[in-house]
Amino acid sequence: MHNIDQDLTSEVSEAFGARQEPHDVLHLEPNVRTFIVTDQDYRYLLQDRRGHVVAGNLPTLPPVSGFRWIDDTTPGLEKGQRYYGLGEKLDDGGYYFVAHDTSPIDTLNESVLETILLGFAAFVFCGVGGGLLMGILVRRRLLLIGQAVQTIQKGDLTARLPVAAGQDELDDLCSMFNAVLDQNERLVESLRQVSNDIAHDMRTPLTRLRHRLQQLVSGPQMEVKSEANLAIEDLDASLEMFSSLLQLAEIEAAGNVTRQEAVDLSEEVNKCLEIFGSAPEDSEHHIDAELVRHIMIHVDVVLLRQLVSNILDNALLHTPAGTSITVSVRKTAGRALLCVADNGPGVPAALLHKLPERFFRLDRSRTTPGTGLGISLARAIAERFGGSLLLEDNAPGLRVLVSFPLSDGRITGRS
Asked: Keyword set for this entry (predicted)?
């Protein structure tokens, strides 16, 4: 409207002209008649003081100065006609009025309003319809999820939440929950396997213990001490097994707190070799050490020594006299690597992956002392500090590779 006001003001000024002529009907009449012919965008009215139309294409109007609206309620205007104009009273009592036809603007406003209403109706329809459709789809998926949860509650640990192909936020949540279910299934299966292994491996020493105690009751007095010593050995073996299982569970438990510090891996391995002392010579084994110094890792020293001792003890127990064992420490691929290799009978390639399992023992090792948990403990300790344990065929013999992340040598406290 501001632009229309300016246009109307300019139109009135143009009619009066730049000359200092009187603002009266006589001087305006020629200009108004010319405007009527040359400018079809405006409507004009020039009337005298009696209200008679002198020139123009509008009916007579009450002489009101300023901007005003006129419509079909004004006598002489057809139905639907509507104008907005500027009136000016003249010096001789006449009246000059210039108007702009607002019908196109009104039509445009009506069209815009209709468009807005149609758009709003379409938006409401799509919003409500889309919301209802989305609600139905989400409800259907929630029902499927609820059914899966009920199945899991009934004890079926293999059930999983449905994941659609869309991969939306709900799918991501279901995928993360399924990952938790996978982990729980593995833990429960591991617990079931451990229970079976305990039942299997503990049955033999407990049976022997019962038999010996029965012999103590019914046997001669002179054999009591001998049988008692054997019974104590069986109890010690059982206690060692339970102690190893508890320690393994403690190491694998999430949130287990152990004291960690930066240590030289070669120095700790060398200390373990010193602890073994003459044991290799007594069993007629030969140990070669190739230890590169100043390879720092971040671990619990006590657990690290237990890892090394378990691997060395395993090599000494399960290889025959005359076997050579090589212990080396070096850097490789940005990690610290401990390697214990022997040239003994080794392990069949098909069974290498089973060796770190709890209580797993080769048939030929059933008669040797041990719990079958040494390598399991070593792997758990390595993984506890971000490392890994790998078993390879040494052709001949067995090669145990334990890698750790390198440390910058600074102590970071407790983890």
From this structure: Kinase, Membrane, Phosphoprotein, Transferase, Transmembrane, Transmembrane helix, Two-component regulatory system
* β-bridge mates for residue 399, sequence order: 341, 392
CA 56 to chain centre: 78
Cβ contact 37:63 at 8 Å: no
The domain spans of the chain are 2-101, 169-252, 261-405
Say if residues 90 and 25 touch (Cβ distance below 8 Å). Answer: yes
d(CA 251, CA 415): 13
In this structure, what token pair is assigned to residue 83?
Answer: 């104008």
- Do residues 406 and 334 touch, judged by C-beta distance below 8 A? yes
CA angle 39, 42, 47 (to 5 degrees): 105
CATH number for the domain formed by residue range(s) 2-101: 3.30.450
How far apart CA 130 and CA 143 sit, in angstroms, is 20
Q: The domain 261-405 belongs to what CATH superfamily? A: Histidine kinase-like ATPase, C-terminal domain (3.30.565.10)
B/e letters for 261-270, b = 16+ CB within 10 Å, e = fewer, are eebbbbebbb
Over the chain (415 residues), the average pLDDT of each successive run of 10 is: 76 72 82 83 87 88 88 80 86 88 66 76 77 76 81 77 74 82 76 63 68 66 63 64 61 58 91 81 84 89 87 86 90 91 84 71 54 78 87 88 81 42
Q: How far apart are CA 229 and CA 212, in angstroms?
A: 10
For 169-252, CATH number out of 1.10.287.130, 3.30.420.10, 1.20.120.1200, 3.90.1300.10 equals 1.10.287.130
Q: CA distances (Å), 277 to each of 270, 306, 368, 370, 378, in order?
A: 11, 16, 21, 20, 21
